[in-house]
Amino acid sequence: MRILVTGGAGFVGSHVVDLLVAGGHEVVVLDSLVAHGDAPPPWLHPDVELVRGDVRDPDAWRAAAGGLDAVCHQAARVGLGIDFGDARRYVDDNDSGTATGLWVLHDVGFRGRLVLASSMVVYGEGRYRCRQHGEVRPRPRTADDLAAGRFDPPCPACGDPVAWAPIDEDAPTDPRSVYAATKLHQEHLCAAFGREHGVAVTALRYHNVYGPRMPKDTPYAGVASIFRSAIERGEPPRVFEDGAQTRDFVHVFDVARANVAALTTEAPVVGPLNVASGVPRTVLDLARASCVGTGLAPIVVGGGRLGDIRHVVASPAQAAERLGFRAVEPFEVGGLRAG
């Protein structure tokens, strides 16, 4: 197969590229290389066709789009960023970049399959159950909640504590940050393209990804990257709230395998799929594991960021059933601090 990987020089994309090349596929990488000092990073596989360009530029897409059997769209601005001043950059890179690519794919008559890198952030808060009212959707937390240490959202009906439960792909979406809104819009754009063109679209909702080639020293990164950067500076990782926020941390090797499965499995899978380990851990668990052997210890600083959510833990059942994907990589210090 001839497969285009956008963002193929990046954290997740480069691992997808490695597996595709190893599997004998012809790989085209579309990447601006801006995140790599305008030069290909040392890990970019030498056997790919590299098209240097921005996903917002239709000419870059046209240069990469010839004779494709599949597209793996990884390129995106990720993380919460700095503040709402980043809104235009997120919309430009994620929404406009995706729309531009789909426009070009429409124009060139693409009829292969499309795999989109989506995110668990489209859910907003995860699934919660109240003993009295059953499954509930808590309201967004406020700045006053965070300042007062009211980190766990209560039942919106009675105010009692609620317990989180694994969230599956049928849960309603409720993006609570600009980044989350753009990821959901990417899903909607790709789904519309798929319906109109008879193209199978798989949206892989990554949970918290960590492992080799994580970005460094940038607010546009996940919590594992942020902790790793602090430790490399000799600083203890700073943990917001009380550290009890619950997440699913999944290794980038597993994420890459999920992408390759979605691109190459005999029967394409249409719709969203969680890509996760299925093992819940807290953010403080992550910080402590990241510090092992360094002489450092995490500092719990309280407070928090309004765009953050309290608990979101995945059910990996649909990915296992429909795609045959299960995470296998261990949660270990080497992966957490990998460069």
How would you sum up this structure, described in words?
There is one protein chain. The chain is of the alpha/beta class and 339 residues long. Helix content is 32%, strand content 20%. The chain has ten helices and 15 strands. Helix 1 crosses helix 7, helix 3 packs parallel to helix 5 and helix 6 (223-232) runs parallel beside helix 8 (283-291). 45% of the residues are buried. The mean pLDDT is 94.
Summed up, what is this model?
The chain is α/β, with parallel strands linked by helices and 339 residues long. It has helices at residues 11-22, 58-64, 87-107, 143-147, 178-197, 223-232, 252-264, 283-291, 317-323, 333-336; strands at residues 2-6, 26-31, 49-52, 70-73, 113-119, 127-130, 134-136, 163-165, 200-206, 208-210, 238-240, 246-251, 271-275, 280-282, 299-302.
| Whole-number mean pLDDT | 94
| Beta-strand residue fraction | 15-25%
Low-confidence stretches: none
The radius of gyration is 20 Å
Structural class: alpha/beta
Task: Count helical runs.
Answer: 10
Quaternary organization: single chain
**What is the spatial order of strands in the main beta sheet?**
3-2-1-4-5-9-13
What is the count of β-strands?
A: 15
Inertia-based shape: globular
Largest sheet: 7 strands, parallel
Q: Estimate percent helicity.
A: 25-40%
- Order of SSEs: EHEEHEHEEEHEHEEHEEHEEHEHH
Straight-line N-to-C gap: 30 Å
Describe how the helices and strands are arranged:
Blueprint: E1 2-6, H1 11-22, E2 26-31, E3 49-52, H2 58-64, E4 70-73, H3 87-107, E5 113-119, E6 127-130, E7 134-136, H4 143-147, E8 163-165, H5 178-197, E9 200-206, E10 208-210, H6 223-232, E11 238-240, E12 246-251, H7 252-264, E13 271-275, E14 280-282, H8 283-291, E15 299-302, H9 317-323, H10 333-336
Parallel strand pairs: 1-2, 1-4, 2-3, 4-5, 5-9, 9-13, 10-12, 11-15
Antiparallel strand pairs: 6-7, 6-8, 12-14
